[in-house]
From TrEMBL:
It comes from Kribbella solani. Belongs to the prokaryotic molybdopterin-containing oxidoreductase family. This is Formate dehydrogenase. Gene3D superfamilies: 2.40.40.20, 3.40.50.740, ADC-like domains (2.20.25.90), Dimethylsulfoxide Reductase, domain 2 (3.40.228.10). One of its GO terms (molecular function) is iron-sulfur cluster binding. The lineage of its organism: Bacteria, Bacillati, Actinomycetota, Actinomycetes, Propionibacteriales. PANTHER family: OXIDOREDUCTASE YYAE-RELATED (PTHR43742:SF6), TRIMETHYLAMINE-N-OXIDE REDUCTASE (PTHR43742). Keywords: Iron, Iron-sulfur, Metal-binding, Oxidoreductase. It is an enzyme of class 1 (oxidoreductase). Residues 4-60 form the 4Fe-4S Mo/W bis-MGD-type domain. Signal peptide: none annotated. Its EC number is 1.17.1.9. InterPro entries: Asp_de-COase-like_dom_sf (IPR009010), MoPterin_dinucl-bd_dom (IPR006657), Mopterin_OxRdtase (IPR006656), Mopterin_OxRdtase_4Fe-4S_dom (IPR006963), Prok_Mopterin_Oxidored (IPR050612).
């Protein structure tokens, strides 16, 4: 038994946001365990939550500002680093204009209100359109689809897991990911609960994943989900199984477009028998409380926005939008949508990319275009890059092109916990705080909780070394440049009146003004931040379920009607019918794979997590045989963009023709265990070519990337 004081917090590695209890001695973290009193996770956490202790205490964490000197880094002071960065930014702005600065904010920024809003505020006030991040590798297509259907990217319904009797999962693996765009800790139990109520969970995935194994699996060829969904809609309207319960426009137009998408033609594309498609459509429409839920496997193919659109269109036309057990618009304690809107984070297409004219999605342009924007001369050429909580060398497409482009920057700053595969090339690396070193509330993820829920976590330990929070760094840097890092004019005005704005203060204002708030004393028993932290340190579930019958509030199109057939979608249908461009030189289709004991590219220096992890690319025995390869051998995997040499493992869990490769490996950074763990960087294979980006949201093509498999040339694993 460890001695020390216990503090309550919650895990901010993934979106489940499980409650944790930290043991602290002498202001150092001793251990983490699941919090049995957390209202949602109730004593559950995954191995990563426990292993966060090793990350917190990792001797290889960056704890002091580092400045590049030749090929190495040397320690510097915060004052020295920020002075020099400000000076260089000033001169870059003077010489090249404000668009010369770009920001890449990685996915951990979305776990922190202060982080994302302050870095975005800084970029906007600097005057640059160049926001980038994980959106175009992750959720952009879903947000664009919600804009088309419901008129607002924040109007994204989530599956009502605890009341549904039919969950159709398209391209998600919640038993490993623990749920995404969905905050639902203990998700295994909740899915099992659906079956326990005599319901069904069906997983459409090219791989027999952990989730597919546990429930019903419908294998599908990668990047063909649009065909499946259109054929389901075709059957539903053909057999008059629809039951629209919310106002909608465009239904007759949508129906008139469905004729070519018969189950038979869909069977040819998807590999799913026509009879299975027919049965799935009928069962879904007849289930009463059904919901289709798609995630990264749905939204990152060549038709990502169309697929996301069709998933919610299916929910809508079967009467499952905004009803118990269906797809729900959610209520939050802090008015996230209103605050996001006030901060102007909600817009799509506010700026456009120079190459390809792609719209930004919530302030992010396609990350695939970053390298080109650094290397191509023009008035908005990027000369300085700020990477906050990101590892784009591992996570954005065409890594080699991106690494080369980094070499052309005049200034490259990163704020991170580690020297990772990207910022090892930076001019400055600034030490970031872990979530255990700051106060926090789930802000951007609050809309995805399966019940209205709110929590405020205390600082568990003081920041180690000289780690600082992103919002403080942006404020300090902003002061040097005459910038108040906020997108909200009234907040900037207050700041100039020396009213210090902190994330804590803004969240308190939001909470008190919100639907459960104390309205600044006007509503007895209502919430304020003080009250929340004093009375509910484990978090507070505000009601068992989200209210239904609220769609009109969330649908922003005229007359609160869902738009079922916008012109953008019609165009995509025509493009789908035109058929895929097929390059016979690359006959196999590559998909990415996530593992339970890993998080994206950054938890790979924890001995606890790495002990049992071995990198291996999953290949169907038929495809291996065709390439003359056997189990455990090295193979050469190549695409039009690049090639890697990797060990393969034979597996009939992948469809013939599909290759599944774990992503986030092939490390070269300041994390020695991660470096030693081998593997290769998947994004050496993925494309940043304009014609390979999805047209509506600029999504990177990550699902079903054309590749080929051959015997190796060198026999040694290639690194990132
Ligand atoms: N091929 C392929 N590529 C993919 C994907 C895929 O499935 N396949 N998935 C995509 C998806 S869904 C995503 S979200 C992206 C992720 O892409 P990124 O966000 O670029 O990468 P991460 O691996 O999450 O790296 C996060 C970095 O943040 C640091 N960090 C952690 N916490 C904090 C913090 O609180 N503050 C600061 N300042 N730093 C912190 C970590 O040390 C790490 O260096 O990758 C995408 N790329
Ligand atoms: N353990 C763990 N948890 C994580 C992460 C992690 O790295 N590790 N990352 C976090 C992040 S950033 C995110 S965004 C979420 C992602 O959460 P999920 O999307 O639930 O997780 P994935 O494992 O990427 O699941 C995507 C599934 O889509 C399948 N797929 C690929 N292509 C296609 C296709 O064309 N059609 C269909 N139908 N399926 C396809 C893949 O085989 C895979 O099983 O997970 C989060 N949670
Ligand atoms: S599932 Fe694991 S990584 Fe995700 S929040 Fe819970 S403990 Fe953290
Ligand atoms: Mo993600």
């Amino acid at each position: 038994m460890t001695t020390g004081e216990e503090r309550i917090t919650y895990c901010q590695i993934c979106e489940a946001l499980c409650g944790l209890v930290a043991t602290v001695a002498d202001d150092r973290l001793v251990r983490l365990r699941p919090d049995p009193a957390h209202p949602m996770s109730a004593g559950y956490c995954c191995p990563k939550g426990i292993a966060m202790t090793e990350i917190q205490n990792d001797p290889e964490r960056v704890l002091h500002p580092l400045r590049r000197v030749g090929d190495t880094f040397e320690r510097t002071t915060w004052e020295g680093a920020l002075d020099e960065i400000a000076e260089r930014l000033r001169s870059i702005r003077k010489q090249f204009g404000p668009a010369a600065l770009a920001l890449y904010a990685g996915v951990p920024s979305s776990f922190s209100f202060g982080h994302l809003t302050w870095v975005r505020g800084f970029l906007e006030q600097f005057g640059s359109p160049h926001g980038y991040g994980a959106v175009s590798q992750d959720i952009g297509s879903r947000l664009a689809a919600c804009q088309l259907l419901f008129g607002h990217p924040f109007s994204a319904p989530i599956p009502d897991l605890d009341r549904t009797s039919f969950l159709l999962i398209i391209g998600a693996n919640p038993l490993v990911s623990n749920g995404s765009f969905l905050t639902a800790p203990r998700i295994r139990e909740r899915l099992t609960g659906i079956r326990g109520r005599n319901g069904r969970v069906i997983v459409v995935d090219p791989r027999r994943t952990e989730t597919a194994k546990a429930f019903e699996h419908i294998p599908i060829r990668p990047d063909t989900d649009a065909w499946l969904l259109l054929a389901m809609l075709n059957v539903i309207f053909r057999d008059k199984l629809e039951s629209l319960r919310v106002g909608a426009t465009g239904l007759p137009r949508l129906v008139s477009r469905l004729a070519p998408f018969t189950p038979e033609r869909a069977a040819e594309s998807t590999g799913i028998p026509a009879l299975t498609i027919e049965a799935l459509a009928r069962d879904f429409a007849g289930a009463g409380r059904a919901v289709a839920y798609g995630r990264t496997g749905a939204g990152r193919g060549r038709f990502g926005t169309l697929v996301c659109f069709l998933i919610d269109a299916l929910n809508t036309v079967t009467g499952n939008l905004d009803r118990p057990g269906g797809a729900l618009f959610t209520t939050t304690a802090v008015p996230v949508r209103a605050m996001g809107q006030a901060a102007r984070l909600h817009r799509i297409g506010r700026v456009r990319s120079d190459a390809g004219n792609f719209p930004d999605i919530l302030g992010e342009l396609p990350a695939a275009l970053m390298a080109r924007q650094i290397t191509t001369p023009g008035p908005r050429q990027i000369r300085a890059l700020w990477v906050s909580a990101g590892n784009p060398v591992a996570s954005v497409p065409n890594s080699r092109e991106f690494v080369d482009a980094l070499g052309q920057l005049k200034l490259f700053v990163s704020h991170d916990l580690y020297l990772n595969d990207t910022n090892r090339l930076a001019d400055f690396v600034l030490p970031a705080q872990t979530f255990l070193e700051r106060q926090e509330t789930p802000f951007f993820h609050a809309t995805n909780h399966t019940s209205p829920f709110v929590q405020w976590s205390q600082q568990v330990v003081s920041p180690y070394g000289e780690a600082r929070s992103e919002w403080e760094v942006m404020t300090d840097l902003g002061r040097r440049l005459g910038i108040v890092p906020s997108t909200v004019p009234v907040l900037r005005a207050l700041h100039r009146l020396r009213i210090r704005l902190t994330p804590r203060r803004l969240i308190d204002l939001g909470l008190r003004a919100g639907p459960y708030g104390d309205r600044f004393g006007l509503r007895r028993g209502g919430l304020s931040l003080r009250r929340l932290e004093r009375l509910h340190p484990h978090g507070l579930r505000l009601s068992e379920h989200h209210p239904t019958g609220v769609a009109a509030k969330y649908i922003r199109h005229r007359g609160s009607r869902v738009e079922l057939c916008p012109p953008e979608i019609v165009k995509e249908l025509d493009r789908l019918l035109a058929g895929p461009r097929i390059d016979p030189a690359y006959p196999l289709r590559l998909v990415s794979l996530r593992e339970l004991r890993s998080h994206n590219s950054w938890t790979h220096n924890s001995p606890q997590l790495m002990r049992s992890r071995r990198f291996a690319v999953r290949v169907h025995p038929d495809d291996a045989a065709a390439a003359g390869l056997t189990d455990g051998e090295m193979a050469r995997l190549s695409s039009r963009t690049g090639a890697v040499e990797v060990p393969i493992t034979l597996s009939d869990a992948v469809l013939p023709g599909t290759i599944a490769m774990p992503w986030g490996w092939g490390h070269r950074g300041g994390w020695s265990l991660a470096n030693r763990s081998g593997g290769a960087n998947l994004n050496i294979l993925t494309s940043s070519a304009l014609e390979d980006l999805e047209p509506l949201a600029g999504m990177t093509w990550l699902n079903g990337v054309p590749v080929r498999l051959d015997p190796p040339r060198t026999g040694t694993p290639s690194d990132g």
